[in-house]
User: What shape does this take?
Amino acid sequence: MKAYVLLPVLHLASAFLPNYLDPGNRFQAIRTQYDPRQRLMGQLQRSEVSVEDSLDAGKVQSYLQAPIMDHDSDGERCEALPNGTSSKPAFFMCKEDTLVTLHGGAITNMNGDDRYPVNFEKPIRVFLDVTSVAPRRYDNLGLEVSLYKRSTGWFGCGWMFLPSFGMLSNYEMCADNPSCPLSPGRQVLEFTIDPTRLFTRLFRMIHYDMSAYQLVVRLRDNRDPFNELLCATIQTRIHL
Assistant: This one.
């Protein structure tokens, strides 16, 4: 088994935020002063522990029998790059009755470059423009991320679930994250996703460059895991 060591990203003097996303204040890049070996081992251990508790775990068994599809409501109009993903990512809520409302978002690389399609060969930064109507702040947040691939073939038109075994999730979102805590009012939440842990050479055999993928992001309060604060869907074209 080969071991992959993630190199730390150089500390940025200032963070770049796309012009079309106005957070109302300026955020610095997530701090990256850490021991890469210790961080990597910690991530692997959290992934092993969290697999059974993640959203993917309940779907993997049925996926082995037949692919799970979220079919489009408008089956007559089947597009390979829906919702404008041919030119930019799409952000919208996948659940309405939550304490946090999504207004928009952006995706950049670790240097703040929002070049499109999104490069999945390196870690990415995700910015969500949100409003919290909760009466208190949350400083212990976790993210569960599920992955889907666009399908227009034999299985119908929609999004096909792909098991990620918790490797895209971040159960300690507020660790070294200047956009935490989540406070009442409008703000920008920033977090990182590292696709390189999942898109290995083996996984690339079933993935397609320049295709549309969907990330379903569920924001939870770790002190009350059943309290889902936000469900956001991100659809984007990716580069491998």
User: Anything to note?
Assistant: The domain at 36-239 is CATH 2.70.220.10 (Ganglioside M2 Activator Protein; Chain: A,). The chain is about 10% helix and 35% strand. The beta strands are 69-71, 90-93, 100-109, 118-119, 124-132, 141-151, 158-162, 185-193, 212-221, 224-239. The chain has a mean pLDDT of 77.
